[in-house]
Amino acid sequence: MTERNGHRPYRCPVEVRWGDSDRLGHVNNAKVVEYLQEGRIKFFRSELPARDAVVLRKMDVEFLRPIKDSSAPIEVETTVLRLGTSSFTVRQTILDRDGVVCAVADTVLVGFDPETDTSQPLTDEARAVLDRHRAVTPTG
Question: PANTHER family annotated for this entry (predicted)?
């Protein structure tokens, strides 16, 4: 995904750790989900205001190619697909050292009030940040 009209994906490196591989030499699928989580955490810490809490509601992961030790360093690209009142959907793509897509995940996250354990609308500041990372469709 490329930057257009100020919209850009967030990219960060994630380390493939020594103990992440299974007996086939592939990174275990549960570890791939951890890489996605690490990418989201880096995105939130880097981009969202600290006071804005979000929780994961749903995740759909497609495993396209095995990640191996030789795939490192990998990058997790995060872009916003949908932005609602209290929730948003991010697409995360894991790319290997050669830029080959290894996994793609769509994740729904919800603004959250930790004091009441209920959803809450996203703040205007959070919405502005998320909008800067929104995917640009071919029509707009």
Answer: 4-HYDROXYBENZOYL-COA THIOESTERASE FAMILY MEMBER, LONG-CHAIN ACYL-COA THIOESTERASE FADM
